[in-house]
Amino acid sequence: MFVSKNLAVNQQGHLTIGGVDTIDLANEYGTPLYVVDEDLVRENCRLFKDSIDRYYGGRGLVCYASKAFCCKEIYRVMEDEQIGVDVVSIGEIYTALAAGFPAEKMCFHGNNKTAGELYYALENGVGRIIVDNLNELERLNALAAEQGKRPNILLRVKPGIDAHTHSFIRTGQIDSKFGFAIETGEALEAAKEASAMEHVNLVGAHCHIGSQIFDIDPFVLAAEVMMGYIAAVKKETGVELTDLNLGGGFGIKYTDEDHPVPYDRYMEQVSAKVKEEAARLGLKVPFILLEPGRSIIGPAGITLYTVGARKEIPDIRTYLSIDGGMTDNPRYALYQSKYDVVLANKANQPKDDIITLAGKCCESGDLIGEGLKIQRGDAGDIVAVLATGAYNYAMSSNYNRVTKPAVVFVRNGQSRLVVKRETLEDLVRNDL
Ligand code: LLP
């Protein structure tokens, strides 16, 4: 009935998440409110971890892409699930460390890591640094020399696969700000330079072919291209890369139009390809890393809002205005992303209304969605926007000096606050 399996309707006709009544949550914590089902997050972590165990003999590491949703508590959950994390800024590293997450299980990404960020990563012993460009390589080598360190590095490679659409194409992705292209030879050149450097330890290659991908084939092709790259690096430099990081990007169900494949089918096919290519090319089977973000956290989250106004414009449309909007979920404004919505206090009623869900910012484009099917609602009703766990809180802002909502985790039928709602004092904290 719902896009995520952790959602249901109770006897009062209220939407529940992880068995907890969302109306109780709205009453207890206020709205707007992000709610994350921790049990489902953990289950999703295990899906990926188990698939590496089953199909790849456990010789890999799942690294949760924490850009999808970052706060101290999520790093504690990931540490408890014994997986790694992908971090993309000093801010994410700092948050993870503050939560007690071990630096050696972090993969540090970014196309323009500053010297300060690299210094911090080295100082704290970040396990793998994914080097994006030659400037960074030189910067890192020099900083590592200064600190007497020799970090493990992977090179970010563009495998030339565009998987952003439902079909995918093999070439044409040279124009990306991320990484070294294989087809121009720069990826091989980078490996030559890196392997000759004294203060970095070149251990692997990384690629990430896109996000919200439903097809398995582009991932399999990426694995094949990357194994070819590892073989070329070995031939050229004598160094056999032992880490193959295939990034994230696994699609989730936002609406009934989305049909994600079971994640273990992905690993089944990718593992087979990696092993086949290793045998064919005379390489060792590499240690594999995956970086799912959205697929771990996305389906586990919802956002609750209170409707403040209903505005019917005859023959045009009906707006329901909520107490949040693009400040807590900018994805419709940015990408016209589609979401499923429910009136959480009338979840047992038929969805016989069609509305535009509008935020409260002074901006016409501040919408969560248009043409949305929902139960008939008015001021005072609670709207739940589903599958908002990924890239919502993470991309929230204070535009219009709107405070950021609180985040609540539910587990075993209980709720707990993990991020406090911002206060007005928070808004002026840095103002002089
Ligand atoms: N690894 C790397 C290197 C990445 O750049 C990303 C996402 C991931 C892993 C995780 O991808 P996922 O499994 O979450 O698809 N703000 C956009 C998504 C941007 C994704 C950026 N990179 C959105 O709201 O859809």
TrEMBL record:
Pfam families: Orn_Arg_deC_N (PF02784), Orn_DAP_Arg_deC (PF00278). The gene is lysA. Its EC number is 4.1.1.20. Belongs to the Orn/Lys/Arg decarboxylase class-II family. LysA subfamily. Keywords: Amino-acid biosynthesis, Decarboxylase, Lyase, Lysine biosynthesis, Pyridoxal phosphate. This is Diaminopimelate decarboxylase. Residues 36-389 form the Orn/DAP/Arg decarboxylase 2 C-terminal domain. One of its GO terms (molecular function) is pyridoxal phosphate binding. Pathway: Amino-acid biosynthesis; L-lysine biosynthesis via DAP pathway; L-lysine from DL-2,6-diaminopimelate: step 1/1. Pyridoxal 5'-phosphate binds at G249, E291, P292, G293, R294, Y391. It comes from the Bacteria. One of its GO terms (biological process) is lysine biosynthetic process via diaminopimelate. PANTHER family: DIAMINOPIMELATE DECARBOXYLASE, GROUP IV DECARBOXYLASE. Substrate binds at R294, R331, Y335, E363, Y391. The modification N6-(pyridoxal phosphate)lysine is found at K67.
